[in-house]
Amino acid sequence: MGSCSKIDLAYIAGFLDGDGSLMIQIKKRNDSKKYRFMLTICMYQNTRHEKPLFWIKNKLGIGYISKRNDNITELRINGYNQVKKILTLLIPFIKFKKIQAKTLIESAKLLEKKELKKADYLKLVNYITLVQSTNYTARKKRTKQELFQILELTP
Description:
Order of helices and strands: HEEHEEHHHH
Strand content: 15-25%
Structural class: alpha+beta
Number of domains: 1
Number of strands: 4
Helix content: 40-55%
CATH superfamily: Homing endonucleases
Largest sheet: 4 strands, antiparallel
CATH class: Alpha Beta
CATH topology: Endonuclease I-creI
Distance between the termini: 40 Å
Radius of gyration: 16 Å
Strand order of the largest sheet: 1-2-4-3
């Protein structure tokens, strides 16, 4: 982790609140029929004004930056350990995405366990739908039933 003052953390949290998103996704593994959970912090900026993303990446000491075809640059941080660590630092300063941040931290704590039980999977599905319901998105969201089917869970 890079070196961040409280002022830096407050700035980054404000940036996340305004131009960021917090996501929990289920991704199909390439090597099998199994699925994995992916936690992501993503911050967006018009490519002409991308400098703050590089500053944030440098301050946090983690993440990767990519330029999309629509002139948007993204800073993405994946992985439950990293997401938990960063959100734990930022949460005192987050104002508008506090529910999503707390939910990702709780998800990360669950995913740290070696063996997940059915109850853990059910909690994760609830966390996914909670985050989806609080995020603004243009894309179709999976329903709870669809998530249960993917994970082969029957409530």
